[in-house]
């Protein structure tokens, strides 16, 4: 069953990236995976369920990549910023743009409610709680600050994905994100 799911996700990921969700044919997709429509419906319910699985996979990969970038930073604060910037920069990747940032919200609704986003929120909240305890960040509610930081990164990525010139928007978005987040720092 896991092998079947993996085949369908892999085929859908390729089809959604190449053609977009709307244009991707379920018959072509299942044929590419060497499976039937019945396997798709049994494992995912429908095309939308399959998109959710693909978005979850890519979004989880994005979070892991951002964490890896953050872990190489010099300290917790720089790590937090590096993760946010890495997430924003991933919006330039065609697969991320089309599947996660354009088709995902159009079909699945607000990304802020996706399971992977909630896990990122919990991680950011823990990091901010630690930074507050260390006296690096002002004493604010860590969950509120985490929601705003994560929301800024997500909205920047959505803006980039929808932009006519994503590269110029990305530069502006990263600069603004860093300045905005910097407002949380405690001045000494």
UniProtKB/TrEMBL annotation:
InterPro entries in the cross-refs: Homeodomain-like_sf (IPR009057), HTH-type_TetR-like_transc_reg (IPR050109), HTH_TetR (IPR001647), Rv0078-like_C (IPR049484), Tet_transcr_reg_TetR-rel_C_sf (IPR036271)
Cited Pfam families: TetR_C_41 (PF21351), TetR_N (PF00440)
The HTH tetR-type domain, residue ranges: 2-62
DNA-binding residues (ranges): 25-44
Keywords: DNA-binding
Signal peptide (residue range): none
Protein name: TetR/AcrR family transcriptional regulator
